[in-house]
Design goal:
single chain, TIM Barrel, Immunoglobulin-like, 2 domains, seven-stranded parallel beta sheet, four-stranded antiparallel beta sheet, binds ligand H79, glycosidase, Glyco_hydro_29, FUC_metazoa-typ, alpha-L-fucosidase, hydrolase
Length: 437
Amino acid sequence: MTITAPAEPQTATDAAGLPAWFTHDRFGMFIHWGLYALPARHEWVKNRERITDADYQKYFDHFDPDLFDAADWARRAREAGMKYVVLTTKHHEGFALWDSALTDYKATNTRFGRDIVREFVDAVRAEGLRVGFYHSLIDWHHPDFTVDGVHPRRDDGEAEIARLNEGRDMARYREYLHGQVSELLTDYGRIDYLFYDFSYRDNDHEDIWGGKGRDDWGSEELMALTKRLQPGIIVNDRLDIPGDLVTPEQYQPDKPMEVDGVRVPWEACQTLNGSWGYDRDNLNVKSVDLLVRMLVDGVSNNGNMLLNVGPTGRGEFDGVARSALAGIGSWMHQHARSVYGAGPSEFRAPAGTVYTQNGNRLYLHLFTWPFEHVHLPDLAGRVAYAQLLNDASEIHYREIPPGTRAQNTGLGGQPAGTLTLTLPIVRPDVAVPVVEL
Ligand code: H79
């Protein structure tokens, strides 16, 4: 087995104590790939459609992604402006994308026969990007993973659950879970990020709905193991114990997130069409404009965006994903400065706009394009120069100095302290125009 050279160590931490790259880089790629790419109708298909192991076996038998090219994935991530890439090493279906010694249910035992995780980490590092793993806590394949409920709810439910769980033993599953994580964090060089998914125990309503949580996963031990094998790794918050960041899913926070009144790093994971796995017939796709707005809106609220791609059963990004990534990349090419290293601003942005700030640079993102003027409260006397970011063309502005009495300035009676930009009539032809101040 070849041991891949670790990426250069990164020890600098940000205010939250996180490796600083994470809140600096802001934008990553999520990749959901597994046997569910073949049915091509959502990664939860086995559960949703109650597909038995025997019936699901055909996807294992026919898994042969001949067009898989990790270098192509990594290059498209970099060209989109993404700085880290997170791959599903195992999703809930239980299929391992690497050559795990602890199971036969793995990519290397399919017709395809290759260690996908190995090719992935090598390719991602070769593009200068950070390596992240997603690992499912849930496992619908493992014989020791206990059943939580029966569907539909029925009177003999308790007895049926007991019958289904005969011979199942979560202690043995825990050992398997920790063992597989050890393999992933030992054999693939430096890993920068780990996304565990997910706990669904309602600790406040155990009597109504138990579900699985920290005791089932052995979360404290698993977290300690993770940090011991990979010092400096960033771990998410889905082990039912606190993590290094919080991970809203397909949800866009509208303000900086806090835990116990303290601002915390967060990352919104988002899909292109609502599905994580490749979903052929789901064309409910977010536009490039919307995706860029989601990214900068997140940064303005101190968050990252982890944008998902679900490669096809042949191993490629489909046309929908490619064009979305290319569109975002062309915006990032000119506007990355308003994203990398940027965060919330103390200033109040006018309606329909979003600020991000990096040091003394303020970035005004215009989600709509006004007629000529945009009025920026409290900025009079504080701006040395203004330009459009896409082409560095100068933007003129007028100011009403703080303390000035209300007057007819020709600027619609704006309050003192307002700085008014004069924009060109024609909106720049970019997803979201940005003025740098
Ligand atoms: O991997 C992606 C999704 O497959 C996974 N997380 C992202 C990153 C995810 N899928 N669903 N969820 C997260 C939340 C779903 C919760 C529920 Fe349920 C599933 C509610 C009902 C079914 C689990 C089982 C919780 C309650 C019952």
